[in-house]
Amino acid sequence: MHPLLTQIRRLLFYLLGWIPLAGMLTYLLAVPGGLTWWQAAAVAFPLCLLYAFVCLAAWYPCLATPLERSSVPRFLVTHVMGAVVASALWVFAARMLARMLTGFEGFHEIVPQISKNFPLLFGTGVLLYLLAVGFHYVLLAVEASRQAEARMMQAGLLARDAELRALKAQVNPHFLFNSLNSISALTASDPAKAREMCILLGDFLRRTLGLGEKPSIPLAEEMSLIHAFLAVEKIRYGDRLRMEESIDPEALDAELPPLLLQPLVENAIVHGVANLVEGGWIRLGAHRRDGLLDIAIENEFDPEAPRRRRNGVGLENVRQRLAARYPGVASFAASAEADRFRVVITIPVQRDEGRVPPQAVLQEKTS
Amino acid sequence: MTGSEARKIRTMIVDDEDLARQVLREFVSKHSEIEVVAECANGFEAVKSAAELKPDLVFLDIQMPKLDGFEVLELIGPGPAVIFVTAYDTFAIRAFEVHAVDYLLKPIGAPRFEAALERAKERLSGKLPAAPLPAMELAAAARPPQQYLDRIPVRDGASVFIIPVAKLDYAEAQDDYVALASQGKKHLKQQTISSLETALDPSRFLRIHRSYIVNLERVTKIEPYGKDSFVAVLSTGAQLPVSRAGHARLRAFLDR
Question: What is this structure's pTM?
Answer without folding.
Answer: 0.67
